[in-house]
């Protein structure tokens, strides 16, 4: 005997009517599924938001880029504590030439010199990181241009005293006033501000981010002429002098599939010419793959934790349906006596559990959408609710209801009609 649409509709109406006879009990039963579905969606939204932000930041570093950064060796840092006059470490001008000439997969290299200086504009003074680089920097480290122009080849060739500021630095120097065309004093030299870019800001952890919030980009040739290779720092009353030719090299590889092999080749080559480990290599592509793997693991863990709430909700449904079977024993006996089949009894109780779980799932979706919105509003954390999490949570809710409703439904169907009619 097939279940016709009309009969199915009547069974659904009957199921809703039976559940409405005990409104409070039905609502309390649904709470487990509501919080389970809501927690699944909220946890996945928080995880997706945090992962998406990190992945996007890594992607903007360039999947074909390799970032090599000068790092002071541990023994040099210990030596600085005993007031050694000069620390010599970092990348060399020859390293740039060797990499470009000997590794065929390297397409472009950007040399970088960095120095902390006090910049002055009018009456305002700001401690900034001065980045000496060339025009290719803005091709490899893509940042949105807000105003003016970027460094060009002629600026490098002519050793022009020009500077490109980050938006954060420009606002702190001039607040809401225009800065394009103004002069910025760095040390004893004046630089014309030709452009403003938006910066991502420095990141913590293993990822080497090339830019910071208060950077000023000037031609590499001008930085080398004005600041040289010696840098002086005053720390805790100690005058520390450092000799660093290059603070950073950003290497672009010809193809994405060559990135990891090229990074290994760079590591071997630098190891041949550097007696100490005075550099660090960061590969955004490897970090990207690692972050994606971490994201998958994170989602599985969060989903498993939230799934426990759904399991508890399913147990609640089984409990309430078993109680319903006991209460409706005489009703089941009457239906069996007038010709109802076992499968019809099973279908009736399964429909009630599906209605209960489906309703709880819908309410849980509302809770799951509300919680991430509150988290973003109050804590400022990025959240991202994906469609698959909504569908998955609702599907699991309905499945849990059906699985935990099968036993009570079968128990109801197996009741002896005569014994059921005698039940008080």
Give an account of the 3D structure.
It is a multi-pass membrane protein. Residues 304-417 form the ABC3 transporter permease C-terminal domain. The chain is elongated. Mean pLDDT is 81; it is low at 202-208. The strands form 2 sheets. The protein has a 6-stranded mixed β-barrel. The chain has a 3-stranded mixed beta sheet with strand order 2-11-10, with helices on one face. With 424 residues, the chain is of the alpha+beta class. Helix 10 (284-327) runs parallel beside helix 13 (387-413). The protein contains 14 helices and 13 strands. The chain has 2 domains: 5-57 and 290-422, no CATH class; 65-254, no CATH class. A hairpin with a 2-residue loop joins strand 10 (230-235) and strand 11 (238-243).
Characteristics:
MacB_PCD; 14 helices; alpha+beta; 13 strands; 56% helix; 424 residues
């Amino acid at each position: 005997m097939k279940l016709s649409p009309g009969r199915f509709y009547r069974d659904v109406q009957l199921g809703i009517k039976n559940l409405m006879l005990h409104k409070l009990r039905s609502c309390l039963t649904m709470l487990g599924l509501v919080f389970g579905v809501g927690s699944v969606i909220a946890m996945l939204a928080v995880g997706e938001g945090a992962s998406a932000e990190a992945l996007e930041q890594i992607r903007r570093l360039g999947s074909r880029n390799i970032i090599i950064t000068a790092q002071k060796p541990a023994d040099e840092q210990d030596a600085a504590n005993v007031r050694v006059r000069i620390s010599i470490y970092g990348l060399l001008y020859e390293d740039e030439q060797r990499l470009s000439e000997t590794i065929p997969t390297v397409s472009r290299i950007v040399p970088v010199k960095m120095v902390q200086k006090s910049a002055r504009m009018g009456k305002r003074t700001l401690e900034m990181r001065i980045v000496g680089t060339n025009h290719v920097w803005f091709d490899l480290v893509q940042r949105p241009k807000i105003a003016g122009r970027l460094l060009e080849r002629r600026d490098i060739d002519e050793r022009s005293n020009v500077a490109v500021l980050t938006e954060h630095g420009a606002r702190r120097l001039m607040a809401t006033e225009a800065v394009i065309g103004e002069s910025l004093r760095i040390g004893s030299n004046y630089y014309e501000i030709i452009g403003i870019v938006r910066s991502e800001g420095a990141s913590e952890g293993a990822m080497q981010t090339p830019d910071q919030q208060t950077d000023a980009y000037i031609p590499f040739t001008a930085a080398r002429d004005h600041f040289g290779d010696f840098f002086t720092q005053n720390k805790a009353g100690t005058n520390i002098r450092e000799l660093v030719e290059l603070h950073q090299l950003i290497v672009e590889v010809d193809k994405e599939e060559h990135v990891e092999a090229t990074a290994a080749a760079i590591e071997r080559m630098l190891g041949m010419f550097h007696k100490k480990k005075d550099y660090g290599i960061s590969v955004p592509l490897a970090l990207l793959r690692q972050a994606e793997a971490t994201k998958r693991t994170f989602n599985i863990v969060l989903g498993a934790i939230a799934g426990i709430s759904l399991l508890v909700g399913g147990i609640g449904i089984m409990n309430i349906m078993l109680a319903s079977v006991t209460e409706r024993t005489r009703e089941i006996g009457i239906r069996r006596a007038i010709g109802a089949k076992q499968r019809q009894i099973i279908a009736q109780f399964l429909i009630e559990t599906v209605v209960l779980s489906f309703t709880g799932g819908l309410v849980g979706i509302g809770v799951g959408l509300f919680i991430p919105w509150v988290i973003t509003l109050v804590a400022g954390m990025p959240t991202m609710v994906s469609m698959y999490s909504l569908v998955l949570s609702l599907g699991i809710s309905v499945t849990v209801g059906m699985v935990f409703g099968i036993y009570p439904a079968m128990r109801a169907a197996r009741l002896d009609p005569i014994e059921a009619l005698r039940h008080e």
